[in-house]
């Protein structure tokens, strides 16, 4: 009985809407102006649909009044069919060649009606929306559709096959090609009001159901008596019609020197006509019903804009932006006015009829009073049971969610710790992994690049494989155990018939951790140094003596001398000077530094002094030993030695880089575990949410039933 529960509220809302819709102020509603009519139409259809449901549901309570209820249903069906045909209608009037057809085309953003120089509309043309994909015509004399191209012959005053002045041509234009037509707006073009004296028949046949009238005037002249006479007749036949005045062809008037005075004259004359003569609005509001536009410019601009083309300059006269803006303002005011007016004229009587039917149904439902009380007690008990079950389910789900969050957090931290420890261990064993790589080594650049590329892959695969052996199996077992625990705990708080479905929600695939070490990019900056370096060369000795931080490159005697003066002289001699036994050596070395600082000849003198002091035999023996050691190291610097040096350098470089991503890798692995467990728990909770929503819907359904029963009881008690 869900339909009955809304009837009282619908009555009140309908009454408020009816009163508010009679106020046709100039302020813009927050919703789209034309949407007001569409929404009101939808609203009143919903009201009658609810009443129809109300009547249908009443059959189960009042079987003896079935004929009465059936009568209500027939009335509601008839009103619903009428509502489906209701639309917003606007009629355009004015003297011949004032641009009525051009105004309509500009509003529809398409050249639907024939217009322009040499064309005069001879009969009424109504443009309305159609669900068809193709446009077609309908005339009064036949229901057979005609081609849209026939409009030029049937409606033109110059055509020999034109229809009579009071005839109506209906243009059914596809709704998907025009916004106004989609919003249930019907636009009616008319012949010039100066071509016939029979204006009364026009009003009777075409204007009594109009929501808005638009007087299209020529801005090059003031309002004529013919135009005023027609709208006086309209005002006498209709109560307070909604009238807009368009001063068309204002682009021509813009050429006048006294344009402001001309505009003020038109504005005062038009507002006096609306407020003082017709008395359809006050003077202040009348100013909002007069607009100075150029329909020709608006049509050309909109048609070209919709096609993505620029409007030629020759079409637009100076000041066209203001006229286009004025035309848009007219449309906004027009849409708001027609929407409010149509809601009032089309739906007010239907709303009153709905209230009458609803009142009659209240009398019928009085007979269901006793039965509703009994059902009300039953529904209250059912609601208590379902609400209790829902609250219990909420508490259990909250507890389970909290426990699972804590468990997932602990597991994530444990996985991060395990991966970090394992990766540290593997980095310490990196030399063994690199030593296992046995591809033939060659110092050639191309071969060496391939060697490094495959070494990257070997290290990455080996590290990943070792991490999987040490971590993956333990982590996967823990993840699966946690997923099973989630499912089992959740199954205890859900109905028994959902248990098989819960276990089917567990992932069918085996969870795997991707370590993503990417050694190729990580070690892309590795540069090997496998050139021969003599261990007792001056450079090597100085580096060992001064420490690894003092890396030098000695390419000549002068560079060696400069380095010696900059580093060795001030450090080594200072340490020797502290011992009195070394005074002689300090003197010699100082002399050496002094001489070598002047020239290469000084260096030769120093060598001679040393040879004289130590003897040439010592120098020769020492030189022979030095040369022999050099020859030994040079001969033993084979490809194998280079490979060992290369691997040692690679291990040092890769270890330093891998240590930088330990935290990132362990965090990434823990995130994968967290994501797996969280997604599994989310799928399981989704099933629980479905059960919860089902219970909530059942409670709401019971509430709706209770509300309906209470409403029935209250109404029946009041009417008894």
TrEMBL record:
One of its GO terms (cellular component) is mitochondrial outer membrane. InterPro entries: Dynamin_N, Fzo/mitofusin_HR2, G_DYNAMIN_dom, Mitofusin_fam, P-loop_NTPase. One of its GO terms (molecular function) is GTPase activity. The keyword Cell membrane does not apply. CDD domains: DLP_2. It is a multi-pass membrane protein. Keywords: Coiled coil, GTP-binding, Hydrolase, Membrane, Mitochondrion, Mitochondrion outer membrane, Nucleotide-binding, Transmembrane, Transmembrane helix. The keyword S-adenosyl-L-methionine does not apply. This is Dynamin-type G domain-containing protein. It comes from Elysia chlorotica.
């Amino acid at each position: 009985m869900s339909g009955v529960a809304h009837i009282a509220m619908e009555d009140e809302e309908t009454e408020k809407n009816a009163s508010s819709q009679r106020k046709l102020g100039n302020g813009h509603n927050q919703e789209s102006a034309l949407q007001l009519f569409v929404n009101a139409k939808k609203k009143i259809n919903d009201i009658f649909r609810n009443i129809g449901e109300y009547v249908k549901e009443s059959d189960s309570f009042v079987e003896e009044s079935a004929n009465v209820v059936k009568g209500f249903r027939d009335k509601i069906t008839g009103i619903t069919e009428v509502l489906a045909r209701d639309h917003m209608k606007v009629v355009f009037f004015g003297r011949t060649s004032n641009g009525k057809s051009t105004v309509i085309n500009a509003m529809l953003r398409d050249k639907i009606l024939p217009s322009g120089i040499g064309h005069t509309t001879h009969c009424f043309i109504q443009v309305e929306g159609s669900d068809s994909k193709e446009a077609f015509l309908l005339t009064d004399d036949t229901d057979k559709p005609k081609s849209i191209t026939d409009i030029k012959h049937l409606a033109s005053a110059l055509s020999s096959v034109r229809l009579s002045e009071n005839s109506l041509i209906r243009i059914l234009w596809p709704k998907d090609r025009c916004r106004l037509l989609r919003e249930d707006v019907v636009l009616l073009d008319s012949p010039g009001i100066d071509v016939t004296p029979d204006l009364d028949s026009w009003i009777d046949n075409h204007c009594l159901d109009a929501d808005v009238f638009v007087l299209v005037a020529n801005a090059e002249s003031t309002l004529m008596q013919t135009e005023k006479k027609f709208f006086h007749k309209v005002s006498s036949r209709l109560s307070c019609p909604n009238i807009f005045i368009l001063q068309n062809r204002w682009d021509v008037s813009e050429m006048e020197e006294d344009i402001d005075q001309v505009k003020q004259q038109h504005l005062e004359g038009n507002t006096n006509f609306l407020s003082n003569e017709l008395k359809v609005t006050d003077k202040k509001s009348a100013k909002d019903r007069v607009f100075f536009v150029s329909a020709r410019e608006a049509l050309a601009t909109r048609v070209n804009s919709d096609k993505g083309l620029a409007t030629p300059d020759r079409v637009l006269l100076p000041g066209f932006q203001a006229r286009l803006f004025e035309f848009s303002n007219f449309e906004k005011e027009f849409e708001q006015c027609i929407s409010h007016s149509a809601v009032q004229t089309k739906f007010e009587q239907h709303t009153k009829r709905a209230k009458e039917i609803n009142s009659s149904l209240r009398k019928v439902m009085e007979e269901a009073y006793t039965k509703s009380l009994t059902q009300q007690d039953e529904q209250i008990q059912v609601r208590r049971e379902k609400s209790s079950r829902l609250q219990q389910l909420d508490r259990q789900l909250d507890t389970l969610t909290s426990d699972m969050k804590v468990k997932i957090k602990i597991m994530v931290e444990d996985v991060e710790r395990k991966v970090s420890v394992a990766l540290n261990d593997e980095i310490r064993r990196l030399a063994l992994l690199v030593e296992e790589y046995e591809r033939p080594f060659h110092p050639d650049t191309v071969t060496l690049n391939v060697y490094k590329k495959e070494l990257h892959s070997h290290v990455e695969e080996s590290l990943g494989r070792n991490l999987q052996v040490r971590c993956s199996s333990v982590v996967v077992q823990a993840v699966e155990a946690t997923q099973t625990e989630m499912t089992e705990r959740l199954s205890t708080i859900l109905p028994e018939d959902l248990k098989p479905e819960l276990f089917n929600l567990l992932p069918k695939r085996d969870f795997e951790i991707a370590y993503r070490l990417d050694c190729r990019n990580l070690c892309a900056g590795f540069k090997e140094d496998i050139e021969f370096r003599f261990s007792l060369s001056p450079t090597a000795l100085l580096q060992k003596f001064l420490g690894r931080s003092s890396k030098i490159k000695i390419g000549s005697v002068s560079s060696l001398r400069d380095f010696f003066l900059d580093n060795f002289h001030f450090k080594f001699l200072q340490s020797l000077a502290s011992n009195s036994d070394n005074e002689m050596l300090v003197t010699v070395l100082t002399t050496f530094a002094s001489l070598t600082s002047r020239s290469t000849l000084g260096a030769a003198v120093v060598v001679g002094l040393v040879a004289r002091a130590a003897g040439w035999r010592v120098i020769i023996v020492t030189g022979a030993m030095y040369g022999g050691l050099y020859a030994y190291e040079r001969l033993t610097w084979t490809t194998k030695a280079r490979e060992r040096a290369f691997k040692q350098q690679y291990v040092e470089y890769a270890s330093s880089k891998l240590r930088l991503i330990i935290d990132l890798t362990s965090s990434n692995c823990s995130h994968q575990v967290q994501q797996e467990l969280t997604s599994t728990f989310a799928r399981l909770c989704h099933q629980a949410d479905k059960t919860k929503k089902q219970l909530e819907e059942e409670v709401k359904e019971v509430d709706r039933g209770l509300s309906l029963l209470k409403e029935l009881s209250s109404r029946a008690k009041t009417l008894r």
